[in-house]
What we know:
By secondary structure, the chain is an alpha/beta fold. It is 50% helix and 15% strand.
Amino acid sequence: xxxQPPSSDLPFTGERFVPxxxxxxxxxxxxxxxxxxxxxxxxxxxxxxxxxxxxSALLARVATHVxxxxxxxxxxxxxxxxxxxxxxxxxxxxxCDRLPLEDASxxxxxxxxxxxxxxxQEAFIAEIARVLRPEGVLLMSCPNRLExxxxxxxxxxxxxxxxxxxxxxxxxxxxxxxxxxxxxxxxFFSVIAPEPKAELGHLVEVGEEDPADDTPALASPLYFLxxxxxxxxxxxxxxxTLSVLADRGDWVHRDYEKVMKMMQDASRHGERxxxxxxERERTMVATMxxxxxxxxxVESAREREHxxxxxxxxxxxxxxxxxxRRDREIEQMxxxxxxxxxELAKTRAALDxxxxxxxxxxxxxxxxxxxxxxxR
Length: 376
């Protein structure tokens, strides 16, 4: 059976998986149904919360009959239209805790990633017990809250109540005392398998820091899968083998290579940016140094200009002072000249008086001489 492409009438919203959705989600969901097919051969099966119906159709390849149930009318209408050619497959619109099935009517009850969407979880487990035959098997999965949410700081908006392992264990034990646990986690695997097919499996989990320290199970599964029954004999007949889903298109590795290439490109780009930044810093340092030198030269020129201006100002002041002194000297010389002219005028006046007195004396002398020569 090939997977269906994404449908326009049932788009992927994140609440339910639909074939064609990309990313690790398709690996997780398809693997669970391939794993469940090992339990379904020749059985009457219920696939609760079947969604798009791809898993029910996969189980119908080996089961006697499969009933897919979902509360979504849209999902059921889509499933009936998409998988109408499977005569041993039917779909019903129903809530998982109120199924239109008779008591003890099915051999295998499959419900993956369902219980965390339900508030009335105990009622759901009771409904599973009602429709299962006493020796029937429940195969369910749910996220491991510790790994799925707590350690990733992740919140799925569609989950009502996620469970820790001990909570899931107590819930299942209310109706099913015998359990076999499996853990699921998407990862890279190196698989060694005999040909033509493997009858048994082998798993060791190691860490990069100490590859010799191995454990025979997944230490921290992202999802729990539980096979449960009221019959210990039935449970003992269930396969305990390792199941590996290999992606024929090698999506995980290609995605890893893509991410690594993006990281390498980003690293190289970062190195180029760092080199460019360092070159810019060097250029900036050189520019700042050149600016500092230019600033020093400007300051020196400004200081020289200020000094020259001060010298010119001092020279101007000295010139003005010299002019002022010369003006004062001229004024002083003019004053002395005026005083000298005044003294000269006085001298001339005195000389005139002397001249007049001398002339008078001469006149008097001539008169006296005349009188002496005159006869008496």
